[in-house]
């Protein structure tokens, strides 16, 4: 079994790391024995508070109630910007690297602070205030950091929508949070192609009657349609804006942002994160998980539209006064050595990316890596999906030249920050294992009936105790928060993942146990894709499942039942793909569509996805018990017509 392979801590890393093995165990113990004292100390050490908290923690898991640092007051941007000005005002806060390798720029902490204050004043002059929801639909440009932090400056709640989402997905998110103010770019670049951001906004806005103001940042500078009275030019507004903006005093539990994420049912949920606990957890994990040190150039390749971009491109690094790199492009443009070229160009020390990118680059061969130096690298990170040992080994051996520990970090949108992870100077590594819990994190493995399993075990991963970065609610629907995370196994936070704990206490995440897909590290609900497919007037029913995919981790396989008398053909397939692209995103396009006159259902009408998953995975030998099916013959028909995914 792959648990046998163990990479000891690299002595040169341990010698200078913040946390070595003994210190990890000592701090971990303390964080569990006396969480309130532990987190109090961390909150003092990592953050500047305007007012100290009255109590550290109050929680009631069955009601989904979690509060940290109650009564504490602070502002996120004071912590991410103002307090750095005296000591590192002229240090680079953000390195921006464009899609085109000849485009790059930098912002110092002083300049970033100045621009954030200015845009905060722009928003105020447009009537945006504390508690208002602001939608941000932007590519990876430096201005994204400016507008995100400007929201935090004035206490507005940002809701960032990934720039790759369609107009319809954008519309749903604007409506759900009732955003009246939106910031977008004219267009953006991705792998040399143009993305028409503003056109998507115009389309979404038609169905968002409350959307009053759209601020447009010029990025490509091409001509775009303009709606007088609604659209505001970012650059003109910034020119006349005042440079001073007092930070809004926020309660530790005031909302900081909403971020939509997919679940097993219904539309994506607006996961709500608050101010004090979230920032502390992002900053502390950033420092210890990546062993961040003063002067490091730190690069996380995630888009700001995902939680990884929130916590580890912006909030964590900036709170720690780091130089963080924002990358607009893709790993393979102009060539598959782009990541390594960027590392050499900016002398990157810490690099954090997703297994899907590692697998895609591995498939291109070692030469693209080996023609670059990468000698500045010290720590490598992985996030978003299980990393297969083969990809881990390649990352460690070829990219990191066996000098750099690989931290495989397990966490979720809802957890705000990393929960299970190695620490570079403390944890011996096993390829494919996220290893051990971070400070304060108490994982447990349950059997299907909810009984905790001791020692070596495999089952359902839960967390038994709160941590400061944990989500507080689903925006506008607290009951959904309770139902999704706290009802299935009362007294625990239910993560939706399966896991195995080995004899050394190491955790191995085995993947989602619900109908959530993880395609190239992007989280998608099967229900969202199915709803898009059934919008077609010739489709009667659709069922979507995931199957193992060599690069994407999971691919998407759709079984589609057409209306009686309709013949399936390639044109129809193209129309269905288009629907998915329009309703959800290009990242949700099915890799295979199979016309299925019938779907395997129980007598009570429930689709047996287990069987559909097996067929999609080409595993026909063990289809399990099919005797409870209403019509067992359906299965043979599906097997006979299996499609080869593209
Ligand atoms: O299934 C787990 C997988 O990604 C899910 C969370 O997705 P999302 O909220 O989009 O956040 C992704 C970035 C934190 C988890 O439920 N996942 C994430 N990281 C890992 C992982 N699975 C295995 N190993 C990981 N390191």
TrEMBL record:
> Where ATP is bound, by residue?
384-386, 408-413, 497, 512, 523
Annotated residues for binding of Mg(2+): 534, 536, 539
Q: Show where the Acetyl-coenzyme A synthetase N-terminal domain sits.
A: 24-80
Going by the entry's taxonomy, the superkingdom of the source organism is recorded as Bacteria
Q: Which residues carry this modification: N6-acetyllysine?
A: 606
Key word Metal-binding present in the record? Answer: yes
Q: What is its EC number?
A: 6.2.1.1
Residues annotated as domain AMP-dependent synthetase/ligase: 82-463
Q: How is it modified after translation?
A: Acetylated. Deacetylation by the SIR2-homolog deacetylase activates the enzyme.
Name all AMP-binding enzyme C-terminal domain ranges: 528-606
Q: Which GO terms describe its cellular component?
A: cytosol
Which NCBIfam families does the protein's record reference?
A: Ac_CoA_lig_AcsA (TIGR02188), PRK00174.1 (NF001208)
Output this protein's name.
Answer: Acetyl-coenzyme A synthetase
Recorded source organism is: Methylomonas koyamae
Q: What gene name is listed for this protein?
A: acsA
């Amino acid at each position: 079994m792959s648990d046998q392979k163990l990479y000891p801590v690299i002595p040169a890393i341990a010698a200078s790391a913040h946390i070595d093995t003994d210190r990890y165990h000592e701090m971990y113990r303390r964080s569990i024995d006396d969480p309130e004292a532990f987190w109090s100390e961390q909150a003092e050490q990592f953050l500047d508070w305007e007012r100290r908290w009255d109590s550290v923690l109050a929680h009631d898991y069955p009601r989904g109630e979690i509060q940290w640092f109650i009564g504490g007051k602070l502002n996120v941007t004071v912590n991410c910007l103002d307090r750095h000005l005296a000591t590192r005002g002229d240090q680079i806060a953000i390195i921006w690297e464009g899609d085109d390798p000849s485009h790059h720029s930098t912002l110092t902490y002083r300049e970033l602070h100045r621009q954030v204050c200015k845009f905060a004043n722009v928003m105020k002059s447009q009537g945006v205030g504390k508690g208002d929801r602001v939608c941000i639909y932007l590519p990876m440009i430096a201005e994204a950091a400016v507008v995100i932090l400007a929201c935090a400056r004035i206490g507005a709640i940002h809701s960032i929508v990934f720039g790759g989402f369609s107009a319809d997905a954008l519309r749903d998110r604007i409506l759900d949070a009732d955003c009246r103010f939106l910031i977008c770019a004219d267009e953006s670049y991705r792998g040399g192609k143009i993305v028409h951001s503003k056109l998507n906004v115009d389309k979404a806005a038609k169905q968002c009657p409350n959307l009053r103001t759209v601020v447009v940042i010029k990025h490509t500078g091409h001509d775009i349609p303009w709606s007088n009275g609604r659209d505001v030019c970012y650059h003109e507004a910034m020119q006349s804006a005042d440079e001073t903006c007092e930070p809004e005093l926020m309660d530790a539990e005031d909302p900081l942002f909403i971020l939509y994420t997919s679940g097993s049912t219904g539309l994506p949920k607006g996961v709500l994160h608050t101010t004090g606990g979230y920032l502390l957890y992002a900053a502390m994990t950033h420092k210890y998980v990546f062993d961040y040190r003063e002067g490091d150039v730190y690069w996380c390749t995630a888009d700001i539209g995902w939680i990884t971009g929130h916590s580890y491109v912006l909030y964590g690094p900036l709170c720690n006064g780091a130089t963080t790199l924002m990358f607009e492009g893709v790993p393979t443009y102009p060539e598959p050595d782009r990541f390594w070229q960027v590392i050499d160009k900016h002398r990157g020390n810490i690099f954090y990316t997703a297994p899907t990118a590692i697998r895609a680059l591995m498939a291109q061969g070692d030469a693209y890596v080996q023609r670059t130096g990468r000698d500045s690298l010290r720590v490598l990170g992985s996030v978003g999906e299980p990393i297969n040992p083969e990809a881990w080994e390649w990352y460690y051996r070829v990219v990191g030249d066996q000098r750099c520990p690989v931290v495989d970090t397990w966490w979720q949108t809802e957890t705000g920050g990393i929960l299970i992870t190695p620490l570079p100077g403390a944890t011996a590594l096993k390829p494919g294992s996220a290893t051990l819990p971070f400070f304060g994190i108490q994982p447990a493995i349950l059997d299907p009936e909810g009984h905790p399993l001791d020692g070596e075990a495999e089952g359902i991963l839960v967390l038994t105790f709160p941590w400061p970065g944990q989500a507080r609610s689903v925006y506008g629907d607290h009951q959904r928060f309770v139902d999704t995370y706290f009802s299935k196994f009362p007294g625990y936070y239910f993560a939706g993942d399966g896991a195995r704990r080995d004899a050394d206490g190491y955790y191995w995440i085995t993947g989602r146990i619900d109908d959530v897909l993880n395609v190239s590290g992007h989280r998608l609900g099967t229900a969202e894709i199915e709803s898009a497919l059934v919008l077609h007037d010739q489709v009667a029913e659709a069922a979507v499942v995931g199957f193992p995919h060599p690069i994407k981790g999971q691919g998407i396989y759709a079984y589609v039942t057409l209306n009686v008398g309709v013949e399936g053909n390639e044109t129809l397939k193209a129309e269905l793909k288009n629907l998915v692209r329009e309703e959800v995103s290009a990242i949700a396009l099915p890799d295979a569509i199979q016309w299925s006159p019938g779907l395997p259902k129980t007598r009570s009408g429930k689709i047996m996805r287990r069987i559909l998953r097996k067929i999609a995975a080409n595993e026909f030998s063990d289809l399990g018990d099919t005797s409870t099916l209403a019509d067992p013959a359906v299965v043979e028909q599906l097997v006979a017509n299996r499609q080869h995914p593209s």
